[in-house]
């Protein structure tokens, strides 16, 4: 009695058998490399990283008038899910779980202080300064403390990565992490801390110069 497998093999052309055998051999070969079953193959086909970057070029220099008065450290877990409308996630879709860590600085721009914003009495013992409100700088993502926890991709997305110049790009989740960190900084009271630190710094400086009474206010 001929088994179904034998009947299939009898109908299969010779070239199809050769292709099937080649695919099977390659699958076993790469599985052996991935699982380190075949010692030495992983090193043989491994990659070597060489930094051939040219020297950094100085494009411009700017004088800074900002007093960096406070810095906040933030961490956010981004869960970004992209689904196709009419396809299951196993076929088309991505989900990335990403931990983003970064900092936001708060500063007071002393360059905006004009002559009318500084008042000193005749005997130079009392001073009143009016400064602009503290502002937040751009969030800065720390690559050493940010990482992807997990990545799930559909079959079509995996195939697309093979032909992409930038497979598994994390740009979308990084931008989202920066946005969330910036939003958190606005609600953190970081600017209030920056104004307090600026006030303490200026009072200490002016007291060392002989001023007994120093008043610092913030406003437009």
Quickly describe the structure.
With 220 residues, this protein is of the alpha+beta class. The chain has 6 helices and 8 strands, in the order H-H-H-E-E-E-E-E-E-E-H-H-H-E.
Average the pLDDT over all residues and give the rounded result: 76
CA-based gyration radius: 31 Å
SSE pattern, N- to C-terminal: HHHEEEEEEEHHHE
Query: Sheet with the most strands?
Result: 5 strands, antiparallel
- Return residue spans where pLDDT drops below 50 for at least 5 consecutive residues: 2-8
State the separation between the terminal residues, measured CA to CA. 95 Å
Class inferred from helices and paired strands: alpha+beta
What does this structure look like?
- InterPro entries: DUF4230.
- Pfam families: DUF4230 (PF14014).
- It comes from Streptomyces viridochromogenes Tue57.
- This protein has 220 residues and is α+β, with helices and mostly antiparallel strands.
- It has a domain at 66-218.
- It is 35% helix and 28% strand.
- The chain has 6 helices and 8 strands; from the N terminus they run αααβββββββαααβ.
- It has helices spanning 4-11, 14-34, 41-44, 155-162, 171-186, 190-208; strands at 66-83, 93-109, 118-120, 126-131, 135-136, 140-141, 147-153, 213-218.
- The strands form 2 sheets. Strands 1, 2, 5, 6 and 7 form a 5-stranded antiparallel beta sheet that branches. The protein has a 3-stranded mixed beta sheet with strand order 3-4-8, covered by helices on one side.
- The protein is elongated and about 105 Å long.
- The termini are far apart.
- 14% of the residues are buried.
- Mean pLDDT is 76; it is low at 2-8.
């Amino acid at each position: 009695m001929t088994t179904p497998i034998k009947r299939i093999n009898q109908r299969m052309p010779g070239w199809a058998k050769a292709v099937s055998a080649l695919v099977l051999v390659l699958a076993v070969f790469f599985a052996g490399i991935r699982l380190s079953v075949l010692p030495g193959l992983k090193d043989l086909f491994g990659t070597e990283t060489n930094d051939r970057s040219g020297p950094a070029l100085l494009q411009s220099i700017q004088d800074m008038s900002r007093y960096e008065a406070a810095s906040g450290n933030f961490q956010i877990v981004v869960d970004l899910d992209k689904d196709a409308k009419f396809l299951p996630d196993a076929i088309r879709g991505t989900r990335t779980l990403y931990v983003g860590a970064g900092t936001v600085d708060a500063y007071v721009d002393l360059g905006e202080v004009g002559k009318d914003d500084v008042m000193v009495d005749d005997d130079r013992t009392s001073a009143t300064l009016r400064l602009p409100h503290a502002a937040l700088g751009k969030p800065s993502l720390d690559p050493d403390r940010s990482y992807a926890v997990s990545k799930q991709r559909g079959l079509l997305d995996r195939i697309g990565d093979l032909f992409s110049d930038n497979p598994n790009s994390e740009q979308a989740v990084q931008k989202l992490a920066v946005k969330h960190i910036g939003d958190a900084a606005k609600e953190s009271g970081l600017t209030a801390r920056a104004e307090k630190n600026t006030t303490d710094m200026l009072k200490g400086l002016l007291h060392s110069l002989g001023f007994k009474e120093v008043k610092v206010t913030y406003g437009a």
